[in-house]
Fold:
Amino acid sequence: MSSKFFGEFKKFIARGNVIDLAVGVIIGAAFTAITNSVVNDIIMPIIGLITGGMDFAEMRIILKPATEATAEVAIRYGLLINAIINFLLVALVLFFIVKAFNTLKEKTKKEEEAKAAAAPAPEPVKSADVLLLEEIRDLLKAKQN
Structure:
């Protein structure tokens, strides 16, 4: 029973799409780090400069002030604003990257199509029937001469 289980597991792991999925997840994690760095280290400082250094994370509506015994109760809408801005910026960066990738892919495809169109067409392959008819024709011509 256990050898059957491990055999099925081995077959499952060895399938190509599982390996492709694992590679996709790893590359996705690395790509996420790059995208987050672009947003946090390049774009957000510019937004901070434009907004006069405003820190949205500190924006909140205090429902109950903090006391010595209890923590502050507040609606932290600034964190929502930060999350929305971060999402929009990440989506924008991804859009530009995917757009550039698609443009490059399309250009490469057009170049390959141009090369294929410039290459001479291969000689058409004659079917067995046509070859047999040509042979009969040649034999009849030879007999007439």
